[in-house]
Specification:
Layout lengths: L1 E2 L12 H10 L5 H21 L6 E2 L7 H8 L8 H5 L6 H10 L13 E3 L6 E3 L2 E2 L11 H13 L4 E5 L1 H7 L1 E2 L11 H17 L4 E5 L9 H17 L4 E5 L9 H5 L5 E5 L6 H8 L5 E7 L9 H15 L4 E5 L18 H4 L5 H15 L3 H15 L7 H8 L12 H12 L16 H12 L4 H22 L3 E2 L11 H6 E5 L6 E4 L2 E3 L3 E8 L5 H9 L4 E7 L1 H6 L9 H21 L4 E5 L14 H16 L7 E6 L8 H7 L3 E4 L7 H8 L5 E4 L12 H14 L18 H23 L5
Parallel strand pairs: 1-12, 2-6, 5-7, 6-8, 8-9, 9-10, 10-11, 11-12, 13-18, 18-19, 19-20, 20-21, 21-22
Antiparallel strand pairs: 3-4, 14-17, 15-16
Helix pairs in contact: 1-2, 8-9, 11-12, 14-15, 16-23, 18-19, 23-24, 24-25, 27-28
Bound molecules: ligand 39S and zinc ion.
Zinc ion binds next to loops.
EC number: 2.1.1.14
Keywords: Amino-acid biosynthesis, Metal-binding, Methionine biosynthesis, Methyltransferase, Repeat, Transferase, Zinc
Protein name: 5-methyltetrahydropteroyltriglutamate--homocysteine methyltransferase
């Protein structure tokens, strides 16, 4: 049985790539220094995989920012607005063009916006959305793929397996950006010849296997999309017949696309047997004799040790039908979504550490499974004992928590009065102007703020010194907001390392790692906490900071919490009970915090749920069941307060059009959402749906240092005014400002407040005849 890997984390075990990229962007290191860091990471990863005994080592899974953006460079899908970056400034090279597409370009008198970014399926990874125009032409533009293939060959002395995103998925991941309507899938005719040229070039370089990822095969497909798959792979087969294609699917089962997938003329098909273990029977039965099946049995999306007996059962089932020779063994998906190395976790309790596996350990699991299939029973027994110790551990089961969650009633998830009543009460109480202004919560997490936490950890600062510094930062952020003239203030979240990790650290049932970083986008990483057992709140989590902040100002201070679905979605979740059960436990904990904030005099409380859309199952038919419990979890967290307390929620990074009804059911008094990059497109959906509650459509993109003008924001507010009742509109940025610096933050917010003032004047001006 051949073993292989679908992709390895590329940030480096110590986040070397993050640090080097940010240094390069700041102009502190040279291009060659950045490239050297990247090269070292690749070498380290390849050798590590070789040492772990992985049969086929992937290459081109490395990326300086994002693998979808890499594809856009490979096939020359560069939007024309970036032409000046590559042509006018002679010191720029391909990497600068690449970063300009990812991050925008505001240098040398140019002001070019970044490409859109969105969620990679149901993960917390974000990719750069390809932009397509009707009749667009493609050509091989970048050598990265070929260079890395040759480099890997040199370093490992083996023939690597290059990884590409398949032509159909690549097109489906993108967006039409043209004045004339067209269907991006029609671009396949132009795109495919370039793919074939790429494959031929790989073959010329000595490639034997190529992994082509087509994750869209696990989603609902139209007839036309299915035909696109058939056409693409027939052509590839016809023109690159000697190359072995491994078609990779993940994150769901193939379901009704099984027959389509197994009949595509490729050599091997990879399936995710962690998400969809039941699909193994159908897939191996349907597989024609030429097709090998790659069994994705080791979870690439979670940190728990593999249950070998379960995996073995799957492998044996497949073996009985198609024989060992036609089987391959792999993780369920790329290990991009796993932290790098468990070894570094010296602070984890030994028993619990023994329940876990990070990327490096997952490679060993693949190897051990191979040995077990070959007859090694010791490894199997050892693993069974560990799995058993976790299952029965008293450290993770709390009867009182289970009982409380079991006793949840519908009334617990419903506010006292309906929205219109609450709105009146809140208006009376707050007396806010039309177009009230606010921000989403965080202010710049500067190097100085991060250093404070680092010093606290090292013992260079006492808890008291640390808190006093954070108090100063909070006070100064409040003064800035008052001066700018914002209506509803925030404390700035300076005390938080991350909006999920911060809560994970305080909740019972959670564990956290020292170095369990996972890439979220570009150089930005997260350290997802681990939900190991029943979750409960042991005391106040945010009251101290919110109350402190409210004491500093006469204006309204918004309390700031992360919602249960987002905490669930951005953590490594226990896999021994359904996700909804865990979500309800978290919801009750957050609910208690909301009530505690109200008691402490906080009148406006925001419960962020940016990940609610991301958790939506990939198949439409599974959506309603998820949304039912996800919305209920949010409502549970929000419904413990009086009518006079205003509950906000916030969402970003997603397309919400298809879940509008459920967003309305969340019944937040105010929702603030990311809309600016789609030019308020999303608001049309809110308008069509007649969204009843108050809404703050983001008027500026916070992902770029670019300061938006008053006019741009006024224009967006006019659009919003045309679509929704004025009395329901708020004015705010797209998302939190933690990744920004102070100067641009202040400048942008000043402009935003001015735009709100203009909108107010316009709305209240007498109509002149
Ligand atoms: N979990 C999560 N998912 C999310 C978001 C989010 O905010 N959180 N936002 C959306 C976009 N994603 C984002 C993800 C991460 C970041 C981000 O800013 N991450 C920071 C890390 C944040 C953090 O945990 N910081 C810690 C530790 C930071 C650190 O690097 N510490 C040093 C020590 C300090 C030093 O000596 O320099 C170290 O460990 O090496 C802290 O502030 O305390 C980064 O990559 O730079 C932003 C957006 C969607 N998904
Ligand atoms: Zn956000």
């Amino acid at each position: 049985m051949l073993t292989h890997n679908l992709g390895f984390p590329r940030i480096g075990a110590q986040r070397q790539l993050k640090k080097a990229s940010e240094q390069y962007w700041a102009g502190n290191i040279t291009r060659s220094e950045l490239f050297l860091t990247a090269k070292k990471i690749r070498e380290e990863n390849w050798l590590l995989q070789k040492q772990a005994g992985i049969g086929m080592i992937p290459c081109n899974d490395f990326s300086f920012y994002d693998q979808v953006l890499d594809m856009s460079l490979l096939v020359g899908a560069v939007p024309p607005r970036y032409t000046p970056v590559a042509t006018d400034i002679k010191e720029n090279t391909e990497i600068d063009l690449y970063f300009a597409m990812a991050r925008g370009y505001q240098q040398h008198g140019l002001d070019i916006t970044a490409m859109e970014m969105t969620k990679w399926f149901d993960t917390n990874y974000h990719y750069i959305v390809p932009e397509f125009t009707a009749g667009q032409q493609f050509r091989i533009l970048s050598d990265k793929l070929f260079n890395e293939f040759n480099e890997c060959q040199r370093v490992t002395g083996t023939t690597p397996k290059p990884v590409l995103i398949g032509p159909v998925s690549y097109l489906l991941l993108g967006k039409e950006k043209d004045n004339q309507p067209f269907d991006r899938i029609d671009l396949l005719k132009q795109l495919l010849p370039v793919y074939i040229e790429v494959l031929k070039k790989l073959e010329d370089n000595g490639a034997i296997w190529v992994q082509i990822d087509e994750p869209f095969l696990v989603t609902d497909l139209t007839e036309k999309q299915k035909q696109a798959f058939e056409y693409a792979y027939k052509e590839i087969r016809r023109q690159c017949g000697d190359l072995k294609i491994l078609l990779a699917t993940y994150f769901e089962g193939l379901q009704e696309n099984t027959s389509l997938a197994v009949n595509l003329p490729v050599c091997a098909l990879h399936i995710d047997l962690v998400r969809a273990p039941q699909q193994v029977d159908e897939v191996v039965k349907a597989a024609p004799p030429r097709l090998s099946i790659s069994l994705g049995v080791v979870d690439g999306r979670n940190i728990w040790k593999n249950d070998y007996s379960k995996s073995l059962a799957i492998i044996e089932k497949a073996k009985a039908v198609i024989g060992e020779d036609r089987l391959m063994l792999a993780p369920s998906c790329s290990l991009l979504h796993s932290p790098v190395d468990l070894e570094g976790e010296t602070a984890l309790d030994a028993e619990i550490k023994n329940w876990m596996a990070f990327a490096k350990q997952k490679l060993d699991e693949i190897n051990e499974l191979q040995q077990i299939v070959a007859g090694d029973t010791t490894l199997l027994k050892k693993n069974a004992a560990i799995i058993e110790s976790r299952r029965n551990s008293t450290r993770i089961h709390k009867q009182t928590v289970k009982d409380r969650a079991a006793a949840i009633k519908e009334a617990d998830a419903t506010r006292t009065s309906e929205f219109t009543v609450r709105q009146q009460i809140q208006q009376q109480r707050f007396q806010l102007p039309l177009f009230p202004t606010t921000t989403i919560g965080s202010f710049p997490q500067t190097e100085e703020i991060r250093q404070l936490r680092a010093k606290l950890k090292k013992g260079d600062l006492t808890q008291q010194q640390y808190e006093s510094e954070i108090e100063d930062a909070t006070i100064s952020a409040i003064r800035v907001q008052e001066e700018i003239g914002l209506d509803v203030l925030v404390h700035g979240e300076f005390e938080r390392n991350d909006m999920v990790e911060y809560f994970g650290e305080q909740l019972d049932g959670f564990l956290f790692t020292k170095n369990g970083w996972v890439q979220s986008y570009g150089s930005r990483c997260v350290k997802p906490p681990v939900i190991a057992g029943d979750v409960s709140r042991t005391g106040d989590m945010t009251v101290r900071w919110s109350a402190f902040a409210q004491e500093q100002t006469n204006r309204l201070m918004k309390g700031m919490l992360t919602g249960p679905v987002t905490i669930l979605q951005w953590s490594f979740v226990r896999d021994d009970q359904p996700r909804w059960q865990t979500a309800f436990q978290i919801a009750l904990a957050i609910r208690d915090e909301v009530v505690a904030l109200e008691k402490a005099g906080i009148k406006v409380i925001q419960i962020d749920e940016p990940a609610i859309r991301e958790g939506l199952p990939l198949r439409k038919k599974d959506g309603p069941a998820y949304l039912e419990w996800a919305v209920k979890a949010f409502r549970l967290s929000a419904s413990g307060v009086k009518d006079e307390t205003q509950i906000h929620t916030h969402m970003c990074y997603s397309e919400f059009n298809d879940i509008m009804e459920h967003i309305a059911k969340m019944d937040a008094d105010v929702i603030t959402i990311e809309t600016s990059r789609s030019q308020m497109e999303l608001l049309e959906a809110f308008a069509r749906f007649k969204y009843p509650n108050e809404i703050g459509p983001g008027v500026y993109d916070i992902h770029s240092p670019r300061v938006p003008t008053v006019e741009e924001m006024t224009h967006l507010l006019e659009k919003a005014t045309a679509l929704l009742p004025v009395k329901n509109l708020w004015v705010n940025p797209d998302c939190g400002l933690k990744t920004r610096r102070w100067p641009e933050t202040i400048a942008a917010l000043k402009n935003m407040v001015q735009a709100a003032q203009q909108a107010r004047e316009k709305a209240t001006a007498p109509v002149l005849i």
